[in-house]
Amino acid sequence: MESFSLILAIVVVTALAFDFTNGFHDTANAMATTISTGALKPKIAVAMSAALNLVGAFLSVEVANTISKGLVDENGIRPEVIFAALVGAILWNLVTWLVGLPSSSSHALMGGLIGATVASAGFGAVHGDVLVTKVLLPAVAAPVVAGIAAMLSTRLSYTLSRNAEDEATRKGYRAGQIASAGLVSLAHGTNDAQKTMGIITLALIAGGAVAPGSNPPTWVILSAGLAIALGTYIGGWRIIRTMGKGLTDLQPQQGFAAQTSAATAILASSHLGFSLSTTHVVSGSVMGAGLGRKGGTVRWSTATRMVVAWVLTLPAAAVVGALAESVTDLGDWGTAVVAVFLVASSAAIWKLSRREVVDSANVNDTDGTEPAGVVTTAIAAVTPPPAGTVTDDLTATIPSPAPAAATDPAATV
């Protein structure tokens, strides 16, 4: 095995930084419903999720192999290409976290890798069949399948507990929700930590540090697991608020059904090597659970914004990855410019987030109302005043003026 070069070390550190952002970006996938229903206190929930993410990282390497061996041609890929891909993924993660949108970290990574690879080696270096069968098709099917399963599970849960005492039912489902949230965390570590393992392994292959076709080394598995666990413990509170309160209002029965359906889908996909977006799965299951309760609603304006972010994730990260690769291709100084740009952009996004802090203390402080849409606002602006009373001679009586309370300066203020 050859010694580490400086660029390879930079790539590994940047990959672990992406893994960290993946952790706090996706904490909502496992714990948003548990926190919003009050089944666990926020800090306890993220600590539990972090521990189980670390455990999950050691359960499989199938998804890691999909990235390191299947998505792009590993021959001729330079470490700088991997670095450029990570720049695109990290920036997209941070931007969507800033606005509280639960987009896919997985697709951000895939998009960055595809864009950087195309910029470096052309479209022929991307394996289109793997992209379609193991990335794009699961992205479309997974939220639909998870949503239908969660909707049916929710209806079954309410049917089975119809004659039970309300308080006992709530306690039972909250306990079940804690268990299912743990299962989602385990599944998230199994699926998402592997993506960083795969990208680091691909970089090691590109840099000549390990042989082509190798599985992730043990130190890679451990470091990726620790990075995603630490990010999970930090907690992506903005996205937790959106997922737990902004999409629909969940009761314990719904939370249990949503998380169980999501965990089942994620674990099955990890076993098959699908680079699944846990965000898509959990969002679909939350919407399905919202529709499964009689009288339940889904805030479709929030759901629409999420879907738009999902559609934009892969191409947006690909464009940034391609641009970053074009600059790094200029030499060492180009790589340094990209690195400085990444650090400066990340710092600027963090500073913007301090204008309105969302943390464990206020994550549930929302009334769940949606902002008025463009059409609603326009209609409200042109709504005519109340009509006057019509008299027998068809002449509208002019309403009497309001009391002249405004003549008092204090009242005016």
Describe this structure in words.
With 413 residues, the protein is mainly alpha-helical. The protein is 71% helix and 0% strand. The protein has 15 helices and no strands. It has helices at residues 6-36, 42-56, 62-71, 79-98, 105-121, 128-160, 166-206, 218-234, 237-246, 252-272, 278-292, 300-328, 332-353, 374-382, 409-412. Helix 1 runs parallel beside helix 9 and helix 5 runs parallel beside helix 12. The longest helix is centred in the middle third of the chain and has 41 residues, at 166-206. It is globular. The N and C termini lie far apart (77 Å). The model is unreliable at 367-413 (pLDDT under 50).
What can be said about this structure in brief?
This protein is mainly α and 413 residues long. The protein is built from 15 helices and no strands. Helices cover 71% and strands 0% of the residues.
